[in-house]
Every structure is written in structure tokens, then in C-alpha cells.
Design brief:
alpha/beta; six-stranded antiparallel β-sheet; 18 helices; 26% strand
Length: 509
Amino acid sequence: MSGQPTRDASPDIAALAPETELLAKIPIGYARKHLLLPCRGADGSVVLLSGRPDDGEAIDEIRFLVGPVRIQPAPEETILRKIDVAYERITTPEREIAEGLSEEWDLDVDAAIDETRDLLESPDEGPVIKIVHSLLFRAIKERSSDIHVEPFEKEVVVRNRIDGILYPMVTAPRKWHAPVVSRIKVMAGLDIAERRLPQDGRIKIRVGGKEIDIRVSIVPTAFGERAVLRILDKSNLLLGMSDIGLAPGDLPAVERLLGRPNGILLVTGPTGSGKTTTLYAALRQLDSGTKNIITIEDPIEYQIHGIGQIQVNPKIQLTFANGLRSILRQDPDIIMVGEIRDAETASIAIQASLTGHLVLSTLHTNDSASAVTRLVDMGIEPFLVASSLSAVIAQRLVRNLCPECRVPYAPSQAQWRELGLAGPPTAPFHAAKGCPACKNTGYRGRTGIFEILLADDRVRSLILTRADSEGLKAFAIERGMRTILADGAEKVLAGITSAEEVLRVTRED
């Protein structure tokens, strides 16, 4: 072993940039195993971050590759985090996909995955496996919520849903469809020989040390099996009520509702409007360790530590209604019902809220007032709805404008009025432009726009008289309720989103 390397006393670790040329020579598995990361210092020298500065053998191997290095001890968590970020940046899934598709390869669709592995650590896999891993990695890196693998007569198209919009990613010859879908089936534990029936499964992977769950749906179509992969990033569980887009004036009101010992709180909106994310944020706030929280869901989107979650299974008669009856025998404090779909489930949920339980659930309605009339239309007596309902939160998701490239402009009077704003335009709007930071879409991330109907005594009296949704909504607006459109208009004026986005999600047919 050669002489002891120089140790750097105290450089700013956060300012050290990993050296891309060196990373290409060092496998990520080796870097993680030995807790080593070569960086370029401000003076141009190589600084080796090390979690084990006394591991002379590994350090000597690095020195053999790059020459003299200065050793900087660093905490293990810091090094692992920097390793994940550095290797994620140098991985280019587009190139891997292109290279894989250009090869003539033998198919080995029966190759199984032994355990959950990190996609960044699979450079030597077979071409089909490499292509699927690259598709997954690219989707996760670009914050996609879904991957669609769609077969057509002469080609297969892969599209990713990013911030609610589908974007074409890869178009390949038809011959690549079967092996790619078979590989997805193997990863999800599905039957690769069954091609006539729909199948559902799950995949668990890691990307750069981050745990990702993927829900897989396979359905047969005229040109072959269509695969949709829903990406469930567990980091979304970290969202709290203050992170989902509630206006500062609405947040205290919602927190007071969640602090009640009983009652039913409904979240409404169409599919894909963020209802589940809102419910999970509420559960996270309520999970103090002193409450018994049980959920019944279809499907379970995220598994939350410390909360009992039940998966609906109609094959064994475990419906929302039957599961809810069983939950009531488990001494719960808080119950979350994934969706109220029928009168039986609605009736049990309302009875639970009247007997000392806080119940959270969702309904598919366009606005908050319609949720009340939907329950009455299901056959629930108005006095039960009035007695149990705490509030209804209606919501939509809008895309956030990219802060790097958004462009201010003066809106026309027609645009101003479309958002429900009175008088002549007095503030600029912002438009999407597109830049490398947002993949030239003009948008990055999404936020919620909300409408909160509080069930006070006056609203309850209207429910008892079987008032229609229009009457309920008009009364609530008179009492100060801000509609979804008005909340969206505020976010447009704040430069968070565009007028086109708000109108896209609030416009009714």
C-alpha cells in the first residue's frame, strides 16, 4: 500500500461537485459499498469524500485511477445522498433506450428479479431488461405519474403522464411490444402465458435509494396487451396539509375540522383531482400515535406506518360496506373510507360519524354542494346528512408554471372576466414558455385549487329542506365561500399557474 493520502481539514462539503469523468469509471455499487465519492475542489484538485477514511485499500484503488487525492471525512448519510444524486444525473435513459432498441437481441423474458434492486445498479442486464429499466428510470426522473405502453398495428408507443398530461416518449417497431410487456409481467409477478384476461400486479423498486411502488394493469386490446404502470412515489407521503395548495385563510379552518372528535369530512372531485393525496395529508396530520386510525381503500395507494389499512376485495365479499362494519368493531377513533360508492356504504359511514368517530371519505361530484344532494339522492335522510356532515372540500389539480421561464403579460378584459374577476384588468397574468428545467412544457409540478363548504347551522337548515345544489352553493357564496374558480383566479394572480390551466380544469361541459 502506498503512502497516506492528504486529508483536507474542513472544506465546505456541500460545495464539492462530483467529478463526472471519474464517476463513469466507478460503479455506483462500489461507491456505496466503500462510501467514497470523488469530487472536484475549488482549486481544481480531486477531493475524495469518504465515510471510512481509514479504508486504505479502497482509497488506494481510487488513487490508482485518478492520481493524488485529498481525503475529506463525511457522514455516511451525506455521502450516500450525494452518490444517489450524482449517479442519477449522469444516467441517460434516452441513450440506453435507443441503444437497446437498435440491437438485435435474443429474448429471455423468463429471467426473474430475485429481490428489490436499485435501477441505477443494473448496467449489465440483458437488452429487454435494460430497456424496461430505462423506461422506468426516465419516467421517475421526469416525475411521471403513469407509463402507458400502447400497441398498435405496426408500432408500440410509450407515453408518460407528467403533471396530468400525456406526452409521447418512445415509438418503436411492433416486434418489441411482446418482450417488453412480458418483462413488466415478470417484474409484477403476473402470468406471462395469460394474454386473454386483464391482470393487475405491483412492482417494488429503488431508484437512487428512493423506494418506489408501481401498480401494474394489463388489459388485452385488438393489437395486443396494453400496460399501464402507476408510479407511487413514497415521498408524496411527506406532504402535509400546508403543502397541497390550501390558501392561508382556509388552512386553519380545515385543521379545526380535523380536530373534531366526530363528524364526516368529504373530499370531492373527478378522478385524478388529488383527493387521495389530500386524505393522506389529513391522516398524516392526525397520526399522533394516540389515535386508532383505520382505512379501507381500493386500492391501497400508499402504505402508511402506524395506520391500519384494509384492501377492498369483492371476490371474498370484502366490500367498502362490509369492511366498514368490521372496522367499527376495532375501536377506531378515525376512519378513512376510500370512496362512498353506494347507499349502504354512505349509511354506515354516516352512522359511524354520529357515534363518535371522525370519518374521512371521497365522492365523485363536480362541486361541494353537489356532494350533499348526492348523499340525499342515494337515499340518506336529510336529517342524517345535516347531523353528521362537517364540511365538503371540492378540489382540482392545476399545473404550476415553471418559475424559470414563465412570462408575464397583460390579460385582455375577456380573459379577466372568464376567471370571474370584476372590473378592468389590474394585474398581470403569466404564460407558459418552456425551458430545459421544465422539459420545454412550461410547467413543473401541480397544486390544488379548493372550494370548502362548511356545514354550519344555516347550511344544515337548508339540507333539511332538501335544497338543491344550486341553492346551497349560492347561499354558501353569499356567506363568503370561495369557489374553485375563485381560488384558481387567486393562484393566477399570484403567478403560480396560468389562466388556461384554471379554465381547463374548472370548465364544465
